Amino acid sequence: xxxxxxxxxxxxxxxxxxxxxxxxxxxxxxxxxxxxxxxxxxxxxxxxxxxxxxxxxxxxxxxxxxxxxxxxxxxxxxxxxxxxxxxxxxxxxxxxxxxxxxxxxxxxxxxxxxxxxxxxxxxxxxxxxxxxxxxxxxxxxxxxxxxxxxxxxxxxxxxxxxxxxxxxxxxxxxxxxxxxxxxxxxxxxxxxxxxxxxxxxxxxxxxxxxxxxxxxxxxxxxxxxxxxxxxxxxxxxxxxxxxxxxxxxxxxxxxxxxxxxxxxxxxxxxxxxxxxxxxxxxxxxxxxxxxxxxxxxxxxxxx
Length: 303
What we know:
This protein is α+β, with helices and mostly antiparallel strands. It has a single domain (9-302), classed as (Glycosyl)asparaginase (Glutamine Phosphoribosylpyrophosphate, subunit 1, domain 1), CATH 3.60.20.30. Helix content is 36%, strand content 24%. The protein has helices at 20-42, 47-59, 104-114, 122-131, 139-142, 145-157, 225-231, 233-244, 248-262; strands at 3-11, 80-86, 91-98, 119-121, 168-169, 172-177, 183-189, 210-212, 217-223, 267-273, 278-279, 286-292, 297-302. The strands form two sheets. Strands 1, 2, 3, 4, 5, 6, 7, 12 and 13 form a nine-stranded mixed sheet that branches. It has a four-stranded antiparallel sheet with strand order 8-9-10-11. Helix 1 (20-42) packs antiparallel against helix 2 (47-59).
């Protein structure tokens, strides 16, 4: 039994503001990511390799706010965050505030595998990426006219906005269960449009935006990062399963539909447990999401 679930962000995603053409593009991006990750699982590959491949695919797809599609910060650049975690040994790697690294999730993986650290940030993380021979891309690679217009609007209003003007939390992520019973999770984001001061959300924080433990579950979050950090969302779900004996569904419901809502935390997550159960809960209008099992492959956007 192998399983994969992915997300491309949650938030106010309305049918009324979506053209058929745009919806088809989003669905294609999700399907490509499912294919990239699930094909690894089908051939006996590891959950870590599968979530990495799925997230690389999402980072390369310009409509999602991660990698190539990352939003502009206040200075007109791109600052990207990513993380990855191996549920078999609780090893993790993460990077924050990096620029021009083509695939931040590959940097997170290198930090996990090739360093004694968990989280590297800014110029130091970029230096490590260069030492590891990871691909860099120039500013033109990350330029997107729609993102640029969002940034200009945010500058004019002096606001920090969540990806689209219609409030979408544009993080991407994946969780997987491999044939050996191992779980893994990975998350990547370009953060908030017009963000200042080196702001960091939950995506690179192990336990907040990403968590994997073979004893319980694997989680990748997308939402209002500050609230997900305060609620320690990903680890909280694992804890409710480990210490209170809740099922994955029950734990997700408590955190996403009760605890988060009480503090104003909007968003969602993808989750998978050691039995292969998949949950895709969100408390926003929509979430770009999908999953693949032996029997079916599904992508969805709205409630």
